[in-house]
Amino acid sequence: MFSLRHKTPLAWAHNAILDMDALLLDHAACERKAAAMGMSFVVKYPDRLEIIDPLIHFAREELEHFQQVCRLLVRRGLVLDHDEPDRYVNLLHKKVRTGRDERFLDRLVVAAVIEARGTERLGLVTDVLEDPELKALYRRLTRAEDRHKDLFLDLATHYFEPAAISDRLSYFLDEEAIAIQAVPFRSAIH
Ligand SMILES: [Fe+2]
Ligand SMILES: [Fe+2]
């Protein structure tokens, strides 16, 4: 269990839902990228056997979220767009160390903090939405996301000492607070 070091103001969510179509398109991209991120661990670290099954499960779950948001996009007549680089995610990835083990630990920790931020922001969107169908979808997705932030840290405990994990977690929580405040409020998850 850990807490983010910068709390998103509710004004962010009020701003984000002003253009619900843009938010849904960005959200769909986030779910798809989360699934791809889970699978990239499996591909890059096939010898870390403890992560294989949980992260395939994770990727499937994120892909299901992608499918749910995509179905909604289609019903709204929206078409998925080309990927925009995610500045927030890139700022965090820049801080990941080189070296096989260092990189593995940092990537797990970065995944945990990104999941934590996603959970926080989907929760805020749930709070401010009025449309009952959208609100129910976002509530379901927030609950599902809430399990993900601890998953990556739990996986790290199979390979790293608790002190090493908490040291990097503290580092990335500071970096994450900087990164999330560096991106402007817009109709996007971050
Ligand atoms: Fe998700
Ligand atoms: Fe997630």
Write up this protein.
The protein is mainly α. It has one domain (12-182): Ferritin, core subunit, four-helix bundle (Ferritin, Up-down Bundle). It has helices at 10-16, 20-44, 49-75, 87-93, 100-128, 132-146, 148-156, 162-182. Helix 1 packs across helix 5 and helix 5 runs antiparallel to helix 6 (132-146). The longest helix has 29 residues, at 100-128. The chain is globular. The relative contact order is 0.20. The structure holds fe (ii) ion (FE2) (2 copies). One fe (ii) ion is lined by residues 34, 62, 115, 118, 145, 148.
What is this structure's SSE topology?
Blueprint: H1 10-16, H2 20-44, H3 49-75, H4 87-93, H5 100-128, H6 132-146, H7 148-156, H8 162-182
Helix pairs in contact: 1-5, 2-3, 4-8, 5-6, 5-7, 5-8
Residues 34, 62, 115, 118, 145, 148 line the site of one fe (ii) ion.
Structure, briefly:
By secondary structure, this protein is mainly alpha-helical. The chain has one domain: Ferritin, core subunit, four-helix bundle (Ferritin, Up-down Bundle).
